[in-house]
């Protein structure tokens, strides 16, 4: 079984609470600076925020008025603007600089961006749903028909596009830049393989165990026995450390986990929106929902030492 390190939460943690109806997403840099994304609608001041270590509260970097989300590699913020014809606006998550603008003639169902390219699943009234590939300047370079259920993303190596939604009962990969269908690796078709935002790894559940698997090889690097209710939110750069979210009977829990030793450090309990970890596995952050209407979201952060000792900034 997983070795457990139980740590009580500090009575006063370094936290920031906002009103938000949508998921509050966070990303942690190597230094511990948080990037916080508040998406419209349902929050008074949507946009991108940076929260430096040792500072009392975040600083707003820019306003992003329409619904927004991180790209799968967590480096770009994608704003999805609904209108007679939907459009996408891209921002650099590091400084909120505008990177590009995409105009479509349909309704954008999902999108992802990586490097110089943007992929979008576009729905046209009375027509098949399309997978479309654009440059950041809005030039369409490829288009193909896809199924009705789409959760879109670039593969960890950026060489293919994937449909993470298996409701159409097929693993689908498309080659960059032609969007020709390509065969999925055989290891991807075993049991349950799912992807981890921002990581070069995927997670593989099988018979009560969880493996961390490099996309480049398909061979497990770490394997631990865990409940199927454990969800890996993010990993460190080498795949050893992760922040995991588990649904319990009456609440959720979030924990830091060392996949090499099985050491698990409890971070908090409640209604968890999201959790993140930095590249070396020492800084963690998570968002926890509360309030009578469920629209109060608290952003918390902590440092975890090599042995699993945890400290909160006061």
Task: Report the end-to-end length measured between terminal Cα atoms.
Answer: 34 Å
Radius of gyration, taken over Cα atoms and rounded to an integer in Å? 20 Å
Shape field: globular
Give the % helix.
under 10%
- Overall residue-averaged pLDDT value: 88
Spans of at least 5 consecutive residues with low confidence: 1-13
Major beta sheet summary:
9 strands, mixed
Structural class: mainly beta
Order of helices and strands: EEEEEEEEEEEEEEEEEEEEEEEEEEEEE
Tell me the number of strands.
29
Q: Brief description of this entry?
A:
This protein has 314 residues and is mainly β. 0% of the residues lie in helices and 51% in strands.
Can you offer a commentary on this structure?
Mean pLDDT is 88; it is low at 1-13. Strand 25 (252-258) and strand 26 form a beta hairpin. The strands form six sheets. Strands 1, 2, 23, 24, 25, 26, 27, 28 and 29 form a nine-stranded mixed beta sheet that branches. Strands 3-4-5-6 form a four-stranded antiparallel beta sheet, with no helix packed on it. Strands 7-8-9-10 form a four-stranded antiparallel beta sheet, with no helix packed on it. With 314 residues, it is mainly beta. The protein is globular. The protein is built from no helices and 29 strands.
List the keywords:
mainly beta, globular, 314 residues, four-stranded antiparallel sheet, 51% strand, disordered N terminus, nine-stranded mixed sheet, single chain
């Amino acid at each position: 079984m997983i070795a457990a390190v139980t740590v009580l939460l500090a009575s006063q943690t370094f936290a920031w609470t906002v009103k938000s109806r949508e998921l509050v997403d966070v990303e942690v840099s190597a230094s511990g600076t948080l990037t916080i994304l508040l998406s419209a609608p349902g929050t008074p001041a949507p946009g991108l925020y940076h929260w430096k270590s040792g500072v009392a509260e975040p600083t707003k970097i820019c306003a992003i008025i329409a619904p927004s989300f991180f790209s799968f590699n967590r480096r770009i913020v994608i704003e999805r603007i609904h209108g007679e014809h939907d459009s996408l606006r891209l921002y650099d998550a590091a400084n909120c600089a505008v990177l590009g603008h995409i105009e479509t003639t349909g309704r954008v169902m999902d999108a992802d961006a990586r490097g110089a390219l943007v992929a979008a699943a576009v729905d046209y009234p009375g027509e098949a749903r399309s997978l479309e590939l654009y440059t950041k300047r809005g030039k369409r370079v490829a288009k193909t028909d896809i199924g009705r259920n789409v959760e879109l993303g670039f593969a960890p190596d950026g060489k293919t596009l994937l449909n993470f939604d298996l409701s159409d009962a097929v693993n689908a990969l498309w080659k960059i830049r032609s969007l020709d269908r390509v065969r999925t690796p055989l290891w991807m078709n075993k049991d349950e393989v799912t992807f981890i935002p921002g990581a070069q790894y995927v997670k593989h559940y099988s018979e009560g165990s969880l493996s961390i698997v490099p996309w480049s090889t398909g061979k497990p690097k770490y394997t631990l026995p865990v409940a199927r209710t454990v969800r890996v939110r993010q990993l460190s750069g080498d795949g050893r450390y992760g922040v995991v979210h588990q649904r319990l009977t009456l609440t959720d829990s979030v924990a830091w986990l060392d996949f090499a030793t099985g050491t698990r450090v409890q971070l908090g309990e409640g209604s968890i929106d999201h959790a993140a970890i930095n590249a070396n596995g020492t800084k963690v952050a998570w968002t926890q929902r509360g309030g009578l209407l469920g629209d109060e979201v608290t952003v918390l952060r902590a440092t975890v030492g090599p042995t699993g000792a945890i400290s909160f900034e006061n």
